[in-house]
Amino acid sequence: MENYDASQITVLEGLKAVRKVPGMYIGSTDERGLHHLVYEVVDNSIDESVAGYCSNIWISINKDGSLSVEDDGRGIPVDNHPKYNRPGLEIVLTELHSGAKFDKKVYKITGGLHGVGVHVVNALSSKLIAAVKKQDTLYYEVFRKGIPSGKMEKVKLEDYKTSKDPDVSGLVFHLARDHGTLMKFYPDDEIFETLDFSYDTLIQRMRDLAYLNPQVSITIEDLRNAKKEVFHFAGGLSEFVKYLGEGHISIHKEPIYFKDSAEDIVVEFALQYNSSVTEIMQSYVNNISTIEGGTHLTGFRAGLSRAVQDYAKNHNLIKGIESISGDDVREGLVAVLHVKVYQPQFEGQTKSKLGNSEVKGVVQSLTDKFLRGYFESYPNVADQIIKRAVAAAAAREASRKARELVRRKSALEGGGLPGKLADCSSTDPEQSEIYIVEGDSAGGSAKQARNREFQAVLPLRGKILNVEKTSDIKALENQEIRNLITAMGTNIKDSLDITKLRYHKIIIMTDADVDGAHIRTLLLTFFYRYSRELITNGKIYFAQPPLFRIQKGDKVHYVYSEKEQETISKKLGNGAIIQRFKGLGEMNPSQLWETTMKPETRKLVQVSIEDAASADRLFSILMGEKVEPRRRFIEENARYVKNIDL
Prior knowledge:
The protein is α+β, with helices and mostly antiparallel strands and about 650 residues long. Helices cover about 35% and strands about 20% of the residues. Helix 9 (about 295-315) packs parallel to helix 11 and helix 11 (about 355-375) crosses helix 12.
């Protein structure tokens, strides 16, 4: 454009900016962004609960594609704002950076101070109905794509069901109190890639919130499928820790619990040690999961390490080793840390990492001081924890020697690739991908089927070790695990360097049967515990080989589910030849290429961690020492698995 002047500059006013660039506010417009809308509304109700005014929250996934969030808090103000002469209800839904969270008068602690939460939900909804109960009156207003459709209306609570306005007469209130807020919104299909709310995704988040806020009861209901869960945990973080560590055997009966404050910072944590070799650590700030940690987590770890190390030295409990490190102290630890800060400084709108420098010192000091006193009061528990850390230190030293041996034998840090690896010719990691395949038979087919330019194949023999129940030294003695580490090029755990990753797609390709699912789970456990950064950076995938090949005449269909097979077979009628693939080795190279390895036609599932707490717990249950939690999980979820050849 040659004529570039001030007239070319566009100013997006109000909520138009949100609709223009929604990713700036909710991260994405896919399923994750869709559910972020729910979290923004629920977080407002949680803020009311933290302030002491809300005891119940009700979330409903409605049949008409909408979602409702109701609470029994004080209700959004409905009187006119003295400056803007408009109802508070309308202002908080239409004006960016408005609300009662910018000083300590109404909310001392909130989920965030961006001031755009519920405004964003309104802006990105095709329709939103906001209703507030105040004594015997219901106040409500309807918004379309963020724009008020008229003035705020009011009706007697006892008469709202007979209102001539279908938007208000159709509202369903679950809570009995005569005060509270209900938000019912319809996500805009012009904005979002999907409008399908996931019940399973939402219950994970609501369960976490209920553990973090024992004063509130959260009910979530899916009216599409008649599902309902009620979460209320009076034991709070102590119950949360037991829940996360359910798959492992604890070395002390009850979790250690602490809550105190200093310098306007509230620090709360619960911790318990078990016999596993992993650490399960969940951290939160103002009810927001900080999956990348931050200053609060750094302070907690430092305080815990110092308290354990000093107690061990003062009581002469370190024997046979030089010292115990922070990693030794945290082996077998299950802990939840929840810090409440008036002005949290998060890195980005996604709020995944806390940056407040002053928080580190406060958390470290309070943690250290409390644990020193606790250990003196409960020496038996302290002795068990110290023995656990000393054993971890001895294993760490043995593991270090084992890693050095692995580096010398297989050149972890460069050169010397596994003999079974059929590498690709490309040296560009972004263009390269590796298939991890079970068995030599399937590996042989994959090597013949692949595109040698950018696809590598690594066959595995049998099932790798379950790293959830074994030490590093035993894991590194396993040839298949060593081959995996060497092929990836990144090293593992605290030595992991993702910039050295040789393939930006790591594709797990196993048979579509129980054994294949088990191998896939073992591999996922390895990546989750040893190379989690590969998962969080979206480098791990599942291949989806077909279950059936259906042919009639010269037409061939590859089918990926029993339901699809029934539909296609019925459509083709008599004479169709149906072949059931029980394993990858049953497919010839051309079939394997066309269905599972050809980028244009294959189906890949990217592995992600939507909820780190649930992921930690699931790995503990499925791969941990305890049998009963695993049996219970299988029994509870068996109804979701159909037509598996046993």
